[in-house]
From TrEMBL:
This is PRD domain-containing protein. It comes from the Bacteria. Residues 10-110 form the PRD domain. Signal peptide: none annotated. InterPro entries: PRD, PRD_EF0829/AHA3910, PRD_sf. The lineage of its organism: Bacteria, Bacillati, Bacillota, Bacilli, Bacillales. GO terms for biological process: regulation of DNA-templated transcription.
């Protein structure tokens, strides 16, 4: 991942300053739970967070999800996702399920 790749992701959010803050706050939340991501995982998460911020700004909810599809995701990963989703207004409640996959994958790969 280059700095240019990350900058493109941040710019797509619609608010680069807020996106940078969101990325830092998310890293802090992850650190408190000892979640470590490799570069590819972090790039994927950053892209998702940028898209979440865009949806938050433009009040564009995701389509509702069947929460049973995420029954194998640990409660800890869902709680991390809830904490991160709580940093932004106007997100659909099901956003936490999509976000939790990033944390679960990082846990499995560590």
């Amino acid at each position: 991942m280059t700095a240019l790749d990350m900058e493109k992701i941040i710019e797509r959010s619609g608010d680069a300053k807020r996106c940078r803050t969101l990325l830092v706050e998310t890293k802090d939340i992850m650190a408190k739970s000892a979640i470590v991501m490799d570069e590819t995982q972090w790039l994927s998460l950053a892209s998702h967070l940028s898209a979440m911020l865009y949806r938050s700004i433009h009040q564009e909810p995701i389509q509702p999800l069947d929460s049973t599809m995420f029954s194998e995701v640990s409660q800890g990963s869902i709680e991390l996702a809830v904490a991160v989703c709580g940093l932004l207004p106007n997100l659909h409640a099901d956003e936490k399920y999509l976000l939790s996959i990033h944390f679960e994958a990082a846990k499995i790969n560590n």
